[in-house]
Amino acid sequence: MKSFETKDMSTGQVHNYLQHAIAPRPIALVSTIDKAGNVNLSPFSFFNLFSANPPVCVFSPSRRVRDNTTKHTLENIQEVAECVINIVDHNIVYKVNQASAEYPKGVNEFYESGLTELASIHIKPPRVAESPVQLECIIKQVIPLGDGPGAGNLILAEVKTIHFRDDLLDDSGQPIQKNFDLVARLGGDWYTRVTPESLFALPKPINEPLTQ
Ligand SMILES: Cc1cc2nc3c(=O)[nH]c(=O)nc-3n(C[C@H](O)[C@H](O)[C@H](O)COP(=O)(O)O)c2cc1C
């Protein structure tokens, strides 16, 4: 084994090593709006589901390592505490990557990436029409993890409305996993795609005491 103390590493090296190891990570394509009505759209792979009751997702726009500035997504949420988490499938991943470019504040990445705005039902930020699952969320809390370059900001987003594309649910309302065609981020420029061939089912163990 090669072992490393994070206190002796650069932020870039810590980021790179952990991103390769803690993978694959799902991608939240987050739409937000500022108080003047400017829409923003950016992807975040520091993202997951952490509670079902209440239903809470967390994602983290970090401070830019380059100049320690904060991302527009965080700034918008501090003005209007709402967001849509749009789930990313293989069909939109190239456009999602385009939306991650560092555009000046006020630029709407829907237009830059070629994705389509769809009005939300309950909140101001629009959904991404091409996304297979769209989650309308109210922000519960923002937790800064530091004030230096690379510091994360945990955004606790409570899911209020879940929109599923029709073909993702069977007649009884059960999600059909193989139809989602999800992608996820790994280290560096690597991504992975959840194809039907890559899926396997693992039933939960039967809850019986272990025999010696
Ligand atoms: C797939 C993908 C995942 C990303 N995940 C994150 C992330 O979790 N946290 C982060 O700060 N930046 C992440 N980025 C970079 C941001 O999307 C990028 O900095 C973006 O310009 C931020 O936009 P904003 O300033 O408009 O919020 C990711 C980029 C891509 C392509």
TrEMBL record:
Pfam families: Flavin_Reduct
Swiss-Prot/TrEMBL keywords: Flavoprotein, FMN
Cofactor(s) named in the record: FMN
Domain Flavin reductase like per the UniProt entry, residue ranges: 22-177
Protein family per UniProt: Belongs to the flavoredoxin family.
Name of the protein this chain belongs to: Flavin reductase family protein
Organism: Mucilaginibacter humi
Lineage of origin: Bacteria, Pseudomonadati, Bacteroidota, Sphingobacteriia, Sphingobacteriales
